[in-house]
TrEMBL record:
Native organism taxonomy: Bacteria, Bacillati, Bacillota, Bacilli, Bacillales
Keywords annotated in UniProt: NAD, Nucleotide-binding, Oxidoreductase
Binding-site list for substrate: 103, 124, 127, 178, 391
The organism of origin for this protein: Fontibacillus panacisegetis
Family: Belongs to the Glu/Leu/Phe/Val dehydrogenases family.
InterPro entries found in the cross-reference section: Aminoacid_DH-like_N_sf (IPR046346), Glu/Leu/Phe/Val/Trp_DH (IPR006095), Glu/Leu/Phe/Val/Trp_DH_C (IPR006096), Glu/Leu/Phe/Val/Trp_DH_dimer (IPR006097), Glu_DH (IPR014362), Glu_Leu_Phe_Val_DH (IPR050724), NAD(P)-bd_dom_sf (IPR036291), NAD_bind_Glu_DH (IPR033922)
Name this polypeptide is given: Glutamate dehydrogenase
Length: 459
């Protein structure tokens, strides 16, 4: 990604160093394209930091930070409703614990492999640092596909998954949460199994819990709301607001639903959302109550939306959602859902703001398109950090054995998102890339972890 334009000898030397580390990452992790992509995005942004501060290079911070502290893979056997034995693969990457216990969600999706878990875990280090909370970076999941499985099968699988995972996690060591395919139901089953295996009631071992057993108010809404709070700051910088804007949101899961809810509350018109089969376009504005019922209660496909709203249209396939004209695009489904061609369509149709609810939804080429066309771009690790930030607040409430009100948590979330935005803006300006939130958030997230690693010595 052409973020930095090298001029001084220090910058050129730093770029060469960063390239060498990147080449080692590629060699050591062959075929892991998502992981390479995530590392490349961050490393390119950090060049000005290495040019200015030799201590990070002298302490081999970069060489250490790209190597997970550990990657655990395990067999997950379970018995389906037909009595047949099924086998999935489980993962947990404990990437970096410099500033706190490993923290990051669990993803259940057939595409899950070591590359995807490592890209997500790597990103999580910097995202968690940006929140200002004391949490390290981790991620996990399985290639299990919850779609089409009965409740009983989901329970059997999650119990087997937790039986192995429980050996490696704990409230002060590693605290998983949800991600794609892991919501309140799955967290409930996993917490039940952990409690059964370990005894006692270690509430802080998982976040995203139900409200009856230690969950935090606002956690369900946090990533989507946080994304909108962050985007509202971006809009404010340009003298704008959500009011009256046309917005396209991809996905119709946890992040999408609450992004839509908050953006609508702020006066925006959301004209499209999607699932992995296709997207709906509703020129009158998406009816969120219908989406919530279809997706959260009935677990149906987004296609059903048009039977209740006949003026809306359904289109098979996800890619063309980005050809719908909008002022603001909020990709909230999955990685690499906007490629260069889609980004060009967005630009041609007048998009002014793109902020990422999903993790790495834009390819490196798509990001180049935004940056070179004056689209104000909010990268995932800053824009979607609200979820993990409130997870950290859930851990704090569990430790204190307290429960804060919705308003208290929401107010803290708003402050955190504002701070992330301001810190990213300031870091970008300080390192010579004013207005570039990719560079700013990567640097701001990196510095806190790097300084801590220097302080801890070579461990
Ligand atoms: P959900 O499982 O609740 O929803 C995911 C949505 O994206 C669904 O609509 C799903 O459609 C769609 N989707 C999933 N995979 C694909 C795919 N390969 N192609 C097209 N659409 C797809 O997940 P979340 O809302 O929790 O997560 C969405 C994104 O946000 C992920 O990138 C996640 O890592 C990120 N994120 C989530 C956080 C959270 O707190 N939940 C925190 C920070 C980031 P379908 O139903 O058909 O599968």
């Amino acid at each position: 990604m052409a973020i930095t334009q090298q001029t001084s000898p220090e910058l050129q030397e730093a770029q060469q160093y960063v390239n060498e580390v990147y080449e080692t990452v590629k060699k050591r992790n062959p075929g892991e394209s998502e992981f390479h992509q995530a590392v490349k995005e961050i490393l390119d942004s950090l060049t000005p930091v290495f040019a200015k501060n030799p201590k990070y290079r002298n302490n081999a911070i970069l060489e250490r930070i790209v190597e997970p502290e550990r990657l655990i893979t395990f067999r997950v056997p379970w018995v389906d409703d037909q009595g047949k034995v099924q086998v999935n693969r489980g993962f947990r990457v404990q990437f970096n614990s410099a500033i706190g216990p490993y923290k990051g969600g669990l993803r259940f999706h057939p595409s899950v492999n070591a590359s995807i878990i490592k890209f997500l875990g790597f990103e999580q280090i910097f995202k968690n640092s940006l929140t200002g909370q004391p949490i390290g970076g981790g991620k996990g999941g399985s290639d299990f596909d919850p779609k089409g499985k009965s409740d009983n099968e989901v329970m059997k699988f999650t119990q087997s998954f937790m039986t192995e995972l429980s050996k490696y996690i704990g409230p002060d060591t590693d605290v998983p949460a949800g991600d794609i395919g892991v919501g309140a139901r799955e967290i409930g089953y996993m917490f039940g199994q952990y409690k059964r295996l370990r005894g006692g009631n270690e509430a802080g071992v998982l976040t995203g819990k139900g409200l009856t057993y230690g969950g935090s108010l606002t956690r369900t809404e946090a990533t989507g709301y946080g994304l909108v709070y962050f985007t509202a700051e971006m809009l404010k910088t340009k003298g704008e607001s959500f009011n009256g804007k046309t917005v396209v949101v991809s996905g119709s899961g946890n992040v999408s639903i609450y992004a839509i809810e908050k953006a609508q509350e702020l006066g925006a018109k959301i004209v499209a959302c999607s699932d992995s089969n296709g997207y709906v376009y509703d020129k009158n504005g998406i009816n969120l109550a219908t989406v919530k019922r279809l997706k959260e209660v009935e677990r149906k496909r987004i296609k059903e939306y048009v039977t209740e709203h006949p003026t809306a249209e359904y289109f098979e396939g996800c890619e063309n959602i980005w050809s719908i004209p909008c002022d603001i695009a909020l990709p909230c489904a999955t990685q690499n859902e906007i490629n260069e061609a889609s980004a060009k369509k967005l630009v041609a149709n007048g998009v002014k703001f793109v902020a990422e609810g999903a993790n790495m939804p834009s390819t490196l080429e798509a990001i180049d398109v935004y940056l070179s066309n004056n689209v104000y771009f909010g990268p995932a690790k800053a824009a979607n950090a609200g979820g993990v930030a409130v997870s950290a607040l859930e851990m704090a409430q569990n430790s204190a054995r307290l429960a804060w009100t919705f308003e208290e948590v929401d107010a803290k979330l708003q402050t955190i998102m504002k701070n992330i935005y301001n810190n990213s803006v300031n870091a970008a300006a300080e390192y010579g890339h004013a207005g570039n939130l990719v560079v700013g958030s990567n640097i701001a997230g990196f510095l806190k972890v790097a300084d801590t690693m220097v302080a801890h010595g070579v461990v």
